[in-house]
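Supplementary Note 3. Input sequence used for the single-chain structure prediction.
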Amino acid sequence: MRRNSCTPALAVAALLLSELIGCTPTVKLEAPSEPITINLNIKLDADVRLRVEEKAKQDVAGKPIF
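The predicted structure, written as discrete structure tokens, is reproduced below.
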């Protein structure tokens, strides 16, 4: 009975291939449990300060203190 010499190499290749396929990384995307909030208070605050400064400059120019 003659034994095929490719069988051990084929078995090793199959084993390595199965390990390689088994170790593939998986990426899962999940929605967050809480909604995403974006805080825009900084922009509003800067806009209000700019308006107040412009109004103060107009008042000082129109009604001099001294």
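The chain has two helices and no strands. Residues 51 and 57 are 10 Å apart (CA to CA).
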